[in-house]
């Protein structure tokens, strides 16, 4: 059976995700911004939680954990690098480790930059990657702890996943990311048509996630610092890719 994945809107603009393996019943939640919407979704499906995966330590990704665990005991997985500032972990992981949900193997990637110790979870067979505040729809997380170079390395790793991978990111920031992306590449036809779909989705209050990596590669300015278009837009035709990325991140911070 396919790995079934639900998108769970939480708080004002966060997403949690629930991944369920129908063969074994194993059920994973990725991040717990708040407990209630996750518990409601589990109850509606009749699924029993078995695993929690925490991408990073920020409150808007972990604040619902204690309440959720009170009624839904589960194995908590988080970054070894973040163990000192996360709730007690049952499994502390690092890049190259993997976890299993039924027969699905989820590979841990270190995608630090937004924070140090931010991890992503990639299920190659399910064509799904949970990226939270690293790679986001048309954007990337702000650099609170890592350097631009580190975030650029993390995004480069994610960009190298198979292009048909669905990217499940942590926030609904897409409409504002779209405005910024269009300011960099106003003539990018793929971006313009993606923008039309985003506007329709948001008017109907539908999530704009997940999105295919192939679409991010064609439209997300933070993955496009190697392209002539983006380099010209910021007047950095001869800089290193990471320097162009750093410039775009700075521009977005002030946008
Ligand atoms: Zn965060
Ligand atoms: Fe966040």
Can you describe what's shown?
The chain has 255 residues and is of the alpha/beta class. The protein has one domain (3-175, 202-217): Metallo-beta-lactamase, Chain A. The protein is built from nine helices and 14 strands. The chain has helices at 35-45, 59-62, 65-71, 148-159, 174-184, 189-203, 213-219, 228-233, 241-253; strands at residues 3-10, 14-21, 27-30, 51-53, 75-79, 91-93, 98-101, 104-110, 119-123, 128-132, 135-136, 139-140, 166-169, 211-212. Strands 1-2-3-4-5-6 form a six-stranded mixed beta sheet, with helices on one face. A six-stranded mixed beta sheet has the order 7-8-9-10-13-14. It has a two-stranded antiparallel sheet with strand order 11-12. β8 and β9 (119-123) form a beta hairpin. The longest helix has 15 residues, at 189-203. The radius of gyration is 18 Å and the shape is globular.
Give structural attributes.
6-stranded mixed beta sheet, binds fe (iii) ion, 9 helices, single chain, globular, alpha/beta, Metallo-beta-lactamase, Chain A, binds zinc ion, 255 residues
In brief:
The chain has 255 residues and is α/β, with parallel strands linked by helices.
What small molecules does this complex bind?
A: zinc ion, fe (iii) ion
Spatial extent as radius of gyration: 18 Å
Quick one: overall form?
globular
Count of strand segments: 14
What is the average of the pLDDT values? Answer: 98
- List the secondary-structure elements in sequence, H or E: EEEHEHHEEEEEEEEHEHHEHHH
For the report, how would you describe the main beta sheet? 6 strands, mixed
Multimerization state: single chain
Number of domains: 1
Low-confidence stretches are: none
Strand order of the largest sheet: 1-2-3-4-5-6
């Amino acid at each position: 059976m396919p790995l079934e994945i639900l998108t769970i809107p939480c708080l004002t603009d966060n997403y949690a995700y629930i991944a369920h393996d129908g063969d074994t019943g194993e059920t994973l939640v990725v991040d717990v911004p708040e407990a209630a919407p996750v518990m409601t979704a589990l109850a509606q499906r009749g699924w029993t939680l078995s695993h929690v995966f925490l991408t990073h330590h920020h409150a808007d990704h972990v604040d619902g954990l204690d309440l959720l665990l009170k009624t839904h005991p589960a194995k908590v997985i988080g970054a070894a690098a973040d163990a000192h500032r996360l709730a007690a972990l049952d499994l502390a992981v690092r890049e190259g480790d993997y976890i299993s949900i039924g027969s699905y193997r989820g590979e841990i990637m270190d995608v630090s930059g937004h924070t140090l110790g931010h991890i992503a979870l990639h299920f190659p067979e399910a064509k799904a990657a949970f990226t939270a505040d690293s790679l986001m729809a048309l954007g990337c997380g702000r650099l609170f702890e890592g350097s631009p170079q580190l975030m650029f390395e993390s995004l480069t790793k994610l960009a190298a996943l198979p292009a048909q991978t669905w990217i499940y990111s942590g926030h609904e920031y897409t409409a504002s990311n779209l405005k910024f992306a269009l300011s960099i590449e106003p003539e990018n036809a793929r971006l313009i048509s993606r923008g039309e779909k985003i506007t329709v989705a948001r008017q109907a209050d539908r999530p704009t996630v997940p999105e295919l990596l192939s679409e991010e590669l064609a439209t997300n300015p933070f993955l496009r610092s190697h392209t002539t278009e983006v380099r010209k837009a910021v007047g950095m035709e001869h800089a290193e890719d990471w320097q162009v990325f750093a410039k775009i991140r700075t521009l977005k911070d002030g946008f």
